[in-house]
Design goal:
Length: 398
Amino acid sequence: MIKYAILGFGVVGTGLAEVMADQRKKLSAAAGQAMELGYILVRHDYPDSPWRDKLTQDFSLIENDPDVAVVAEVIGGCGAAYEYSRRAILAGKSVVSSNKELVAVHGAELAALAREKGVSYLFEGSVGGGIPLLRPLCRCLAANRIDEVYGILNGTTNYILTAMAREGQDFQTALKAAQALGYAEADPTADVEGIDACRKTAILADLSFGYNIDPAAILTTGITAVAPDDLELAQSLGYAVKLLGRAARTETGCCAFVEPHLVPASHILASVNGVMNACAIRGSAVGEVVLCGPGAGSHPTASAVAGDIADAVRHRADPQVPDLGAPGGVLAPAAALASPWYVRADGAPDRVLAAFPQARPVYGSSGECGFVTEPMTRPALEERCKALDVRAFYRVLA
Ligand code: HSE
């Protein structure tokens, strides 16, 4: 009997134990042999837990148990999660993870170590929560040169923007609800400032373009400055506001950034609401594919991690390690990428039209105006905006 261990007993760890127990037979069939939960690594006692006899605070028990073939790291962060992942791989165990921070920052190093030790390193749950996304990208679309990946990659911010737009909720109320539903990170700053989406964008770029991108180099803007006025004006102009992570192939590397965008109401991403995520992949043979599903939450994320556990067991003789790319490749400055822009300004129509003659401004309940420009780079936009009292500007997905 093959054993697996779960490191971490938070939202995802609890869900993983539940999903693995619920679908034990089916997962064992997928793995090709029976699997049994060996340990759950915890930081505290849980005397009332149905898994209390599996709980341990001692990682060395897992590390030294030869029957444990797979370790699921769902701790999060780059501290203990990194140390235990490394030690598990060095002990000859496959590691699966939903930890986007760890995969974005140390994934290439852990993947190289896994290859050296002949074990799998899988991280389907690290991007898009429960959406089967990384396997389709790497395997089903192997016949494609991937030219662009972009999408809604954070459930918390999409939940907040949806609640603000649909129900007129304020930012804090919507954030609290997302936290209560188990969508947000331990520190929600990573969600609302776009850092979580940035890590996921880095992983998608790594897998798509072959360069291991430093997430810290990705220009990242979150949603904290998105005002109710923006949601109202965007709607009047025929758009939805979405936080998008985008990465596109360039001649010498790629261009990657995370920013709030105005998405045309007719675009498929505009109707992706609440905790749902969606990722568009543009490939040379297939054209554009959009994968959509729950991007956060206990069981959806556990679904992806459980699939990885079964896959790692099935492929013990043929370890699976996605290619997170090699260092190199130029990260092109996002500012140079021309696009239409949405501008919110406090301005009389004649001033707006003097600066942007093609604009068709609309006015919101607070009296501010919003309009969409023709395509231009960010520096060109900033130059044209000098004559206006600009409150906000965001890219428009063209
Ligand atoms: N906090 C993340 C989100 C969890 O809201 O998308 C899933 O990665």
